[in-house]
Amino acid sequence: MYLKSIEVQGFKSFANKIVFEFHQGITGIVGPNGSGKSNVADAVRWVLGEQSVKQLRGSSMQDVIFAGTENRKPLSYAYVAITLDNSDHKLAIDYEEVTVARRLYRSGESEYLINGSPCRLKEVSELFYDTGIGKEGYSIIGQGQIDRILSGKPEERRELFDEAAGIVKFKKRKATAQKKLENERDNLVRVNDILSELERQVEPLQLQSEKAKTYLKKKNELKDYDVNMFLMETERIASEQREVEEKFKIADEQLKESADAREKIRQEYDRLGESITEMDEKINAIRENISNTSVMKEKLESQIQILAEQIHTAEMTDEHLQSRLDAIAREQKEKEEAKASYEKEKYSGDEQLAQVRKRQEEAAQTLAEIQKQIASCNEGMEQGQKELFALLNRRADIQAKQQRSDTMVEQINIRKAELGKRLLDRKTQETDLDSVLADCKKDLEEVSAHIRKLSEQEKELSAKEKEWRTKAKENDRALEEKQNEFHRQQSRLESLKNIAERYDGYGNSIRKVMEQKEHNPGLLGVVSDLIQVDKKYEIAIETALGGNIQNIVTEDEATAKKMIAFLKQNRFGRATFLPLTSVSARKNPKNEAALKEPGVIGIASQLVKCEQKYEEVAAYLLGRVLVADSIDHAIALAKKNHYSLHIVTLEGEYLSPGGSMTGGAFKNSSNLLARRREVEELRRSCEQLTRIPADEYMAYKELCNRADDVWHKAKAQDDFALFCPVLQELVDYNRRFAGYYDASKAPYDALLNEYERGVDRKMLDSFFATLREGLVPLIHKIGEKPQIDDSFLHQEYPAAQQKAFADYLMEVMGLDRSHCGLGETEHPFTLEFNNKDVRITTNYDEHNVASSMYSVLHEGGHALYELGIRDDLQYTCLAGGVSMGVHESQSRFYENLIGRSRPFVEAIYPKVQEFFPQQLGGVSAEQFYRAVNKAQPSLIRTEADELTYCLHVMVRYEIEKQLIGGTLEAKDVPAVWAKLYKEYLGIEVPNDRDGCLQDSHWSGGAFGYFPSYALGGAYGAQMLRRMEQDVDVWGAAAKGDLTPITA
Length: 1047
Description:
1047 residues; five-stranded mixed beta sheet; 8% strand
């Protein structure tokens, strides 16, 4: 094996690519000083993996890259490759020739290659083990290295001999193996520790496993029941759907029949119209004949005059007169004969006229029958036509005879009047037919409306079916979540109980002593088990107790003495005992005086709860310790009392007599008080999930679903009577559930305790009375003052623009839209699935822009609270928050304290004007600020101002208290509601929609929730006051950036 070539490019002084070719034997490289001879040796050392910059005669690895000259730019990388002849296969690689290369870029990236394939430095080093070639091998001897070898330590010289002897790779492998062996020993120790811990947990886990198997079995049974119930419900809904479809088919057939009848009526109407048209034509013809008769009359009168003249002329001659007399006699005889004939014909005509009148009466009867049955119209019309034709024919005969006599003309006029009357009768018949047709059309419209109503009902039923399916799924999901929550909490409770029973977290001596408790009734318990502390005081009390929290309380000194002997005998360690017969408290007189100082919360012993017989123990341990709210107040108190007091803060700082202070990053490793509290909360939560019978709970949830539907309808129709029976059912259920919650309490107190633990009517009555005494007179005084103009808030504000504005407000609040959605409902609310998925809703009133604006801020406060819950608290009893009052404090905080503040309004108002330029273009920020803070009694709670809001809550509180207490029935709610609104707010309630039906809470069974709104407002004000000490609240609000406040 020998070196065949070296390829260098961009390495130190070699800017251009250069290749050094070598042959077997000795090759010398000569040149003047500074020509780069040493750089060739450095290149070989560098390509073999040299990492020491000092060995390469530089200050950083970037120095090996060509740095450039006055005439040449620097290069971006350095590259060196050496090629070795491996025909003797001394290198452990199946190649006759081996090329090792290294490339370095100015960006710091580096790579190694063997025969063009990327590799690691480790692979390059292993390739040259025991060959003498390498960054530390004896084959590369640099300047001064001989002197360093000769003057070096024996260990350093031995490395060269080891390399020459070929044992380096074995030493390296040995070191690696020893390191791995050591790691494996450490792992084995850890495995043994884990194994011993797991063996200790096997028995509890086996119990849990049995419970889990039982749970899975019960879960499968429950799932089968759920499936069967779902199938039964589906079958019921399907049967209802089939009934609706059958009714729809019947209605559809009725519609078709009505349509056919309508078509027949229309055809009959058209036919009757044509007949009437023909009758009109005949009447016109009769009128023309009458006109012709008049003309004939005039002609006859003229002939009579001519005859009179002729008679007068004839009288002039006797002969002519005699002849004329004879002619007249003959004419007279003819006239008399004609008269007799006419009278005969008149008699006949009178008989015919009587017959016509008789037929007219029959036609009237026929008309009445037509009104009852349209089908008979055709026959009546045909009979009328026949009669009309007969009359016309008879009239023609009479007209012919009328030409002979004026009397006949008179008769014709009479018949004309009769015909006119007949025509009027026919027109009356036509009017009646129109009326019948109108009635038919009306019937058709009613049938069509009924069909449309049935179609709408079908759609409503389909929507209801879909909604009920959705609600059924939601109920199933809620039930499953409750079951999962119950099993999680039950498992957690069992685990904590096991830990508590084993006294994990306590000293070994404490555990050993408490294991003897069953056999020694004088052992009462550990201090941490005998006292109860509110969550906010846990850190302070546990700090004040220190190691005393593990002290063991005994009935007397004899028990303590016995346990001390037990510890000695078994060499279990030491423990401190507190016999009730000997422990006595020592009071510090200065503590009583210090209670009046700023920031002092109280004496520690007075902030814990315990049985009466343990009060002396609590006073002994904590009676001399004061609790302060902050370290600043604690220091001030200590100075004032010359550092003679024991003082602890809520955050765990401890000030001892003499001036010493303990504090810092508090990590409560034991957390014994919190563990006991969590056990209690888990126990209470598990009891709550199991105390209501499952079938009763499911019936109640179904009632709530039905109540929600009824409430929506009742509100839309402004009809409380529709909602009243369901409300009474809900009240009865909640009164019964209150007994399940806590039978020792009054029903309403038990319901209040579900939303705000520790709150009862006595406390709320006092709280609301104080508020009422101050608010009601103040509101009346404000009402007497000139009112602020807020009319510009009630212009037309399109919903689309309000939605865009709502998105902007969520951005200002710092709500992550990937985890928080915004929807629209009639009543705004917040829905939380977990701390990664929260939904809020609002309602867009197009005539009140402030309504949606502040409901978004309100619900956004709820959302921030839910999104801020820690991941490790998810699906535990602590995930729901401290209380609903604290939950509401966040919504009231952002809606009123921040959202209605002058800095915040002025900060966002330019953006508000951008969204609503037409409505607010001429309105100043000051006007807008005053308008949104206008104090004026109103009907709607969600639109109430900050001043009157609590009075709305009081109305609901008083009504709930009476409903659950049994002194008020649901039917009387509207009257009491109106009375209280008049008394508290001085306004009349115009209707139920804007009165007792405005809230959705009761339809969901949330009795006892409303007071949390008022409590939340009070909590929020206290939080703001404390926050102002640490955060520039109003500076952040003035910038429109709520991040510092939210954080």
